[in-house]
């Protein structure tokens, strides 16, 4: 449905996106995830037809719509867009907003499509309301189904949850995923919030300084990041330093562990490896000791930042432990590492 090949985007001779390749199959939900300024919104604008590319091609249904000096007009791409501020027409009712892009249908067909979409998002009875009379979540749903109403080939969503309370974001992302899957809509989401991306997308691209670092599902990004940039951005965790020993093992302040990477490192080479909070187990009988230097209560669990007490290191790890044990700041405790696989990066 969508393919970007070696795409570059620039403004005033400055390249903001470079060498980008990705594709989405029909019915897939993709996400571009990254911090502000990484280029993800520029990519969305280029796909929509609002921004030229300086290199490469963008194709929809195998038809090239953008390449240098050639750009199919946005209104000819059959793409729907949900903007960050929703951009609902304040002088139109909910029903009129949804029907806005359905002028090619008969009156009866428009009314049927509007009823169908209102039912899909649970807004029956609100068709005569104006946007100012809706909650933020309701406005978001109206903006979504207005963009979906003409059945576009591709739906683009630009930070669609940014104006909502954090408690609502993940729940609404799950709900919108269900709506998109019901309609078999191909969609591409842009966000800086990884939990929104995890809840909504089939495949996620992590952006960093204008480059697509990895394009994979959420599980792969979390457990098999392909670079330090992805490892640092996805999930909570720390990169612990160590050295490669004989027999593909890694020596570090927490012990010696078998390397599971396919990549081969030289004996004695300095490396870093990824430790997630769920890799650290509190174990009073362990000889490895750590001191609590920070903590945060999270209901069923307590988040701890721990300083390793090994005499030759000042390294820290993060632990998420059941809250029926409540350790104090500066308290010493035993820990062990429960690693299913070791993700190693060269220093």
Question: Nutshell version of this structure?
Answer:
The chain has 347 residues and is an alpha+beta fold. The chain has eight helices and 21 strands. Helix 5 packs parallel to helix 6.
Would you give an account of this structure?
- With 347 residues, this protein is α+β, with helices and mostly antiparallel strands.
- The protein has a 6-stranded mixed sheet, sandwiched between helices.
- The longest helix is centred in the middle third of the chain and has 18 residues.
List keywords for this structure.
347 residues; 5-stranded antiparallel sheet; globular; 6-stranded mixed sheet; alpha+beta
Question: How many E-type strands?
Answer: 21
Rg from Cα = 24 Å
Largest beta-sheet details: 6 strands, mixed
Mean pLDDT: 89
Strand composition percent:
35-45%
Q: What class would the helix/strand composition place it in?
A: alpha+beta
| Succession of helices and strands | EEEHEEEEHHHEHEHEEHHEEEEEEEEEE
Point out poorly predicted stretches: none
Question: What is the percent of helical residues?
Answer: 10-25%
The number of helical segments is 8
* Strand line-up of the largest beta sheet: 7-8-9-3-10-11
- Give the N-terminus to C-terminus distance in angstroms: 39 Å
Shape annotation: globular
């Amino acid at each position: 449905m969508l393919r970007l090949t070696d795409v570059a985007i620039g403004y005033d001779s400055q390249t903001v996106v470079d060498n980008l390749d990705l594709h989405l199959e029909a019915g897939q939900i993709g996400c571009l995830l990254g911090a502000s300024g990484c280029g993800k919104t520029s990519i969305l604008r280029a796909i929509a037809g609002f921004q030229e590319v300086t290199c490469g091609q963008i194709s929809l249904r195998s038809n090239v719509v953008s390449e240098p000096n050639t750009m199919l007009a946005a209104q000819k791409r059959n793409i729907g867009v949900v903007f960050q501020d929703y951009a609902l027409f304040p002088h139109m009712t909910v029903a009129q907003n949804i029907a806005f892009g359905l002028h090619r249908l008969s009156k009866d067909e428009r009314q049927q499509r509007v009823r169908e979409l209102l039912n899909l998002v649970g807004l029956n009875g609100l068709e005569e309301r104006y946007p100012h009379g809706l909650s933020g979540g309701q406005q978001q749903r109206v903006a979504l189904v207005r963009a979906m109403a003409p059945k576009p080939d591709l739906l683009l969503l630009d930070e669609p949850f940014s104006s909502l309370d954090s408690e609502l974001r993940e729940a609404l992302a799950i709900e919108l995923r269900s709506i998109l899957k019901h309609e078999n809509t191909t969609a591409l989401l842009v966000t800086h919030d990884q939990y929104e991306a995890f809840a909504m997308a089939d495949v996620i691209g992590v952006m960093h300084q204008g480059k697509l670092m990895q394009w994979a599902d959420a599980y792969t990004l979390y457990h098999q990041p392909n670079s330090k940039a992805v490892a640092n951005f996805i999930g909570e965790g720390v990169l612990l330093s160590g050295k490669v020993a004989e027999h593909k093992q890694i020596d570090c302040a927490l012990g010696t562990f078998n390397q599971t990477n396919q990549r081969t490192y030289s004996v004695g080479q300095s490396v870093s490896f990824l430790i997630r909070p769920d890799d650290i187990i509190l174990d009073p009988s362990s000889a490895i000791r750590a001191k609590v230097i920070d903590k945060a209560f999270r209901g069923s669990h307590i988040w701890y930042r721990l300083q390793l007490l090994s005499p030759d290191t000042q390294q820290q790890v993060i632990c998420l432990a059941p809250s029926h044990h409540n350790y104090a700041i500066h308290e010493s405790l035993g820990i062990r590492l429960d690693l299913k696989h070791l993700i190693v990066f060269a220093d």
